[in-house]
Design goal:
Layout (H helix, E strand, L loop, with lengths): L9 E5 L2 H9 L9 E5 L4 H12 L8 E10 L9 E9 L2 E4 L3 H11 L5 E8 L7 H7 L5 E3 L2 H10 L5 E9 L12 H10 L3 H10 L6
Parallel strand pairs: 1-2, 1-3, 3-8, 4-6, 6-7
Antiparallel strand pairs: 3-7, 4-5, 4-8
Helix pairs in contact: 2-5, 3-7
Length: about 210
């Protein structure tokens, strides 16, 4: 009897040390997965470089890549601690569609009950977005912005055929701008939510088609 192929690895990508700390110390919901957390550093260039180097290594064919961490919400009514599940990521180079959005929404609502989950395009920026610039990005149809997700997923699909997704936690929003992550209540709320998302990521990974031999 032919053995069932093992699932491809899961690479969870974040930019900041505080994001990696939240993921490594967070609740796994009793589920263990074959995954690695990669901290890239801040900004699209750092994300491109780190992801390309990691996926160039042996045993990375088909690796599923999920970009996560904090983001800025663009739509009125968003609050720190809300979740954003991207159906696509965008930047000046174009768009990359995400896989398994509906399942991620379902599993995040289970993992973090009571938190609002938004779905829509996640746009990239090379700087922290403040004030009126939010309105300009919202007018493009995007619902949130961060500096690394677009670069992460574009680089990932550029290295081979693989499933990709992006889940971000709103750390500030039009009515709740932060001066510095982690110094006010909104940052603490977002940190606690990020510590709770791993079970949803594992379920997303488990749902993916097994790699062909």
């Amino acid at each position: 009897m032919r053995s069932r192929p093992a699932p491809a690895p899961l690479l969870i990508v974040c930019a900041l040390g505080i994001e990696r700390f939240a993921l490594r110390t967070g609740d796994r919901g009793g589920v263990e997965g074959r995954f690695t957390v990669l901290r890239t550093g801040m900004g699209p260039r750092a994300a491109e470089r780190s992801v390309a180097e990691r996926l160039a290594g042996p045993g990375t064919a088909g690796t599923a890549v999920l970009a996560t961490g904090f983001c800025a919400g663009l739509a009125p009514g968003m609050h720190p601690g809300d979740l954003v599940v991207a159906d696509e990521i965008r930047d000046s180079r174009g768009a990359v569609p995400c896989v398994g959005t509906d399942l991620l929404v379902k599993e995040l609502r289970r993992a973090v009950p009571g938190r609002t989950v938004h779905t829509g395009p996640l746009t990239g920026s090379d700087h922290v977005v403040r004030g009126p610039e939010r309105s300009a990005l919202l007018a493009t149809g995007a619902i949130a912005v961060d500096m690394e997700s677009a670069a992460t997923l574009r680089t990932a699909v550029g290295t081979g055929d693989r499933p990709v997704a992006a889940v971000r936690v709103v750390v500030d929003a039009p009515e709740h701008e932060l001066v510095r992550i982690g110094t006010v209540r909104g940052g603490i709320s977002a940190f606690r939510v990020l510590r709770s998302v791993l079970p949803a990521f594992f379920e997303w990974h488990r749902s993916l088609p097994l790699p062909r031999r």
